[in-house]
Amino acid sequence: MQKHYQQLKTGTSQKEQQEGCLQELLGEYHRMQENLEKQLNEKNEEVIKLRRLNLKSVLASSPVYIKLLELCKHNRLNPDEKRMFSSEEWNMLLQEIDIASLGFVERLQKKYEFLLEDDIHFCCLVKLEFKYSDIAFIWGCLDVAVYKRSNSVLKRMGVSATKKSELINILNRI
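Given the sequence above, the corresponding structure tokens read:
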């Protein structure tokens, strides 16, 4: 019986050592997982910054983007003689934005399938960091209409309509 007791005691001690080792390994695993998650978040932030940088630099020399800037300026200076962007020009701009941002328009449409065509246009203008007053000049409408569009876009996205900055943040994460 004494021999059996000694064997049990030795077995228990070994099991306790194994459990201690497993706890250490589990702790190391959790630390590694946290570190990897932190690195992944940092890399995601870098990708978002690169997408924004790439978008601005590529579109700066784009004829359709330059035309959009000219349209905004013209409509601001000539309120009685407003010009509008054609469907074809919108399509070209969306294609260029999609290429320059590595698929922003496509990701936006997939993630928020209830957005209307004008909502997509609006989101692209916001993504390009146009002020709401400039968007009003581009669309030939009042600022109030642009703010209403912003609220309706947020509602279609399933987000409570609170601030313009929230929409920009949402778009920058796409």
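The CA atoms of residues 127 and 171 lie 6 Å apart. Try to locate this feature in the token string yourself.
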